[in-house]
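Good morning,

Attaching, inline, the backbone tokens for the sequence recovery test we're adding to the shared suite. The designed sequence is right after.
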């Protein structure tokens, strides 16, 4: 007897429906075809034990299972429940009159209980698109899938519940989530707050500007000056995610199985901080069967690279294209996947191998030549994509011992959000531009017009400070953000003056 059950495969951040055809006939044998990987091929052992421990069995007949489309590679253990229900239905051990109305996924334990799966959210989106009545999956993934409206989601703990639903008509409990209510309820602030940072007022100002315009930023300073502490607090002043951004972000984390059991929609912007030993595949994504990398997991959030020169040069170089295009495309012989990667890059570094500026009183000193060699580990094209360079100096004892708290992240975030709203309105007619950092040369000329005095100031600064040509556009972008923070329609000389300070690495002779 032939029965069809439906599952799903995830490629990139999109799902494809898989039809599992199970045919039970005279003879002996178990044949699984349709390009399954080893995890799926081993499923018959898990299925056999799970069925036996729940009073059922795999029939001693010829069982042929095809996973269609047969030319599409399937991977992972999430098809266990799909295959088990198909075998039971095809061998007439259970009734399954409305089996074609459900999409079924789940990994089986030997006692019949279910383990969580990856990619529940994109699978649920596809199930709704294709008109399925319901989606049956492990209860650990139920909240994640229930984000999708107009689809009945049933979280189950073991295979017995699924069997009783189809065979005995027992009703499964539907997981219902009010997506908007859940999202806005979880819009709390992260544990890190700028109020905890002593001193460093100029750096906090710099971080506020970076957050307001979505600018990439690099912090240069000796050990213990607070670079990591400041970077970790950046997400707390970024504007709250929109519902669309939250869905987009959750989908990527769902694909790699990183959505927490007790949460449905991610309400906090991601903050990723990979170690400097990371490979280029782990950073940008890829592998034989591509998975999102750190740059995609930090989509709509912050990617923090601590001790930037310690990363392998080829690892940093592969980031250049995603930083520009805000997406990364991974191509293989048979398919191509594209992952979004619109993130804020925050990098930190010591100015020299010893960690200190060219200071004779420092515990470890480095010559200008050593500092230059150390800095040259970072390529010009990568620095070209970082709008703000800022020097971080150690905090004096008087400020460290001061009991007064600094300005909180809540207050800073209000100003950042107001500036972002101005930018959203400014760029509403442009498809791929939402904030200042995304402007191209043409848009910079249109939205960052300068009067004669400001132009003369910029020209004078570039000549006197020996600023490079690439600094020109960056200064204009940053000055536009400073103007937005202060509510100015036009960029003035004061905004240009402040933006010029944030191009430390472009100054000739900065390293002594």
């Amino acid at each position: 007897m032939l029965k069809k059950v439906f599952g799903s495969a995830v490629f990139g951040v999109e799902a494809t429906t898989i039809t599992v055809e199970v045919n039970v006939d005279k003879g002996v044998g178990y044949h699984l075809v349709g390009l399954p990987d080893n995890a799926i091929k081993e499923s018959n052992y898990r299925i056999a034990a799970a069925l036996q421990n729940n009073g059922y069995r795999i029939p001693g007949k010829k069982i042929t299972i095809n996973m269609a489309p047969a030319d599409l590679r399937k991977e992972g253990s999430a098809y266990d429940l799909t295959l088990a229900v198909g075998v039971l239905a095809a061998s007439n051990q259970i009734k399954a009159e409305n089996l074609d109305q459900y999409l079924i996924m789940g990994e089986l334990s030997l006692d019949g209980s279910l383990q969580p799966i990856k990619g529940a959210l994109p699978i649920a989106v596809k199930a709704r698109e294709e008109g399925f009545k319901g989606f049956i999956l492990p209860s650990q993934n139920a909240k994640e899938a229930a984000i999708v409206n107009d689809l009945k989601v049933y979280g189950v703990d073991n295979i017995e519940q699924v069997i009783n639903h189809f065979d005995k008509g027992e009703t499964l409990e539907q997981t219902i989530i009010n997506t908007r209510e859940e999202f806005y309820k979880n819009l709390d602030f992260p544990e890190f707050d700028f109020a905890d940072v002593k001193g460093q007022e100029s750096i906090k100002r710099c971080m506020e500007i970076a957050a307001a315009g979505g600018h990439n930023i690099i912090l240069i300073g000796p050990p213990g000056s607070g670079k990591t502490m400041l970077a970790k607090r950046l997400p707390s002043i970024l504007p709250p995610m929109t519902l669309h951004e939250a869905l987009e972000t959750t989908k990527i984390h769902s694909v790699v199985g990183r959505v927490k059991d007790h949460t449905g929609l991610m309400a906090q912007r991601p903050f990723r901080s990979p170690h400097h030993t990371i490979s280029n595949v782990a950073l940008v994504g890829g592998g034989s069967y591509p998975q999102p990398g750190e740059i995609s997991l930090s989509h709509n959030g912050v990617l923090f690279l601590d001790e930037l020169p310690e990363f392998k040069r080829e690892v940093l170089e592969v980031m250049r294209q995603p930083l520009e295009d805000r997406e990364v495309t991974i191509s293989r012989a048979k398919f191509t996947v594209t992952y979004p990667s619109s993130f804020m890059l925050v990098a930190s570094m010591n100015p020299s191998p010893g960690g200190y500026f060219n200071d004779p009183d420092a515990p470890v000193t480095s010559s200008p030549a050593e500092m230059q060699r150390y800095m040259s580990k970072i390529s010009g094209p990568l620095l070209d994509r970082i709008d703000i360079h800022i020097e971080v100096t150690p905090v004096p004892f008087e400020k460290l011992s001061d009991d007064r708290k600094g300005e909180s992240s809540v207050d800073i975030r209000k100003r950042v959000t107001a500036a972002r709203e101005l930018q959203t309105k400014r760029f509403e007619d442009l498809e791929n531009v939402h904030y200042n950092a995304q402007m191209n040369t043409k848009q910079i000329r249109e939205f960052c017009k300068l009067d004669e005095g400001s132009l003369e100031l910029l020209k004078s600064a570039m000549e006197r400070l020996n600023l490079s040509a690439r600094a020109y556009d960056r200064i204009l972008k940053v000055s536009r953000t400073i103007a937005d923070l202060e509510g100015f329609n036009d960029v003035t000389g004061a905004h240009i003056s402040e933006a010029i300070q944030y191009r430390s690495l472009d100054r000739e002779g900065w390293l002594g």
